[in-house]
UniProtKB/TrEMBL annotation:
Composition-biased stretches (Low complexity): 33-43
Source lineage: Bacteria, Bacillati, Actinomycetota, Actinomycetes, Kitasatosporales
Family: Belongs to the GtrA family.
Protein name listed in UniProt: GtrA/DPMS transmembrane domain-containing protein
Protein localization: Membrane
Keywords, alphabetical: Membrane, Transmembrane, Transmembrane helix
Length: 191
């Protein structure tokens, strides 16, 4: 075997219908592998994840602004803290879905609108439950019942915990990676 680019050995494989090389053989190297969904070098993986986290946080920041605005509006109208948190999560979740589907995860497979909506809203409901639980703990177990305490427990502590959960759930279950085409099967050595 001869050395390919970057010192990787080349391998000979047969591809049906290929006109490259003798007897239809092609000589791919790891550099020719599809980059979408592939592991890639650690530096490029870190850059991709950093970009994804940044976009996720920007889209989430907009949804957060909607959440806080609606939450405080509900509190001003006399709604209780837990009910206000659950109510404010609905428009915030819609904003988050649009931002994540069409910006953060636009390069990922579309696995069906129904499937994505369902999973996105189920995981968002779980995250909203995490946030509402923070308000519950603050009110019931700790005895803090002011608007400031509600905002700290719902929009800082609860939001941080919910955001970590959402990031993991959305990238793992909702917006799946595109699967690379399978690599051609290497046949025996050259003759």
């Amino acid at each position: 075997m001869s050395n390919g680019r970057d010192g990787y050995p080349r391998r000979v494989s047969r591809q049906v219908g290929s006109t490259r090389g003798a007897r239809g053989a092609s000589v791919p190297s790891p550099v020719d592998a599809p980059s979408e969904g592939a592991a890639g070098p650690p530096a490029s993986r870190i850059a991709r994840v950093r970009s994804e986290v940044t976009q996720f946080l920007v889209a989430g920041g907009l949804a957060y602004a909607v959440d806080v605005l609606v939450f405080n509006l509900c509190l001003s109208l006399g709604m209780g803290g837990v009910g206000a948190k659950i109510t404010s999560s609905i428009p915030a979740t819609i904003v988050a879905y649009v931002g994540n589907r069409y910006w953060t995860y636009r390069h990922r497979d579309r696995t069906g609108v129904g499937r994505e909506y369902t999973l996105f809203f189920v995981f968002s409901a779980i995250a909203a439950g995490i946030q509402a639980s923070s308000v519950f703990v603050s009110h019931t177990l700790m005895g803090y019942e002011s608007k400031l305490a509600d905002n700290i427990s719902a929009n800082i502590v609860g939001m941080a915990l919910g955001t970590l959960f959402r990031f993991w759930a959305f990238r793992t279950w909702v917006f799946k990676h595109k699967r690379p085409d399978p690599a051609p099967v290497a046949e025996g050595g050259m003759s």
